[in-house]
Prior knowledge:
Layout: E1 21-29, E2 32-39, E3 42-49, E4 58-63, E5 81-86, E6 92-97, E7 102-107, E8 116-119, E9 121-124, E10 133-137, H1 140-153
Amino acid sequence: MVNLADDPLSEHDVSIGPEKRRVVGEVRNGPDRIIIYTTGQKCGLATTRKGDDKDLSLHVLTAWPKDHTDGTTRLPHGPYLNASGNGSRGTWASLSCGKEAMVVKFFSPAIATTSTYRGSLDVIKPPNAESPVSIVVGPRDIREKISAALKTHS
């Protein structure tokens, strides 16, 4: 779990019930901050922009697959349910949510080829400014398998 000094999600929490939101990772890429979290059996991501840390520019939430007949299995350790969304200032993200891992693809017109991050995640840098950043969340051995698959499919 990652503790956020300034948590922009607390003002936007929509969860009803006993599930608590757990931030599992944070990535900073250019002016964008990507926060990856779980709440119960759901995966989520939210982004903010530098200088506007309280307003979410993008928010995507999806659930785990119910069973192995639900979702996609293109990547290892699936299946995954997928959700995507467009944010402000030309950003977009897709989120693949599984019981063992999450995979995020994030694009911004201000995408950088280097990122700083915290949490149990790996960041696969984009090959150029027109490609998204890929983020793999989960235990190290699972991240390695998914990252290898992403690199061969890209």
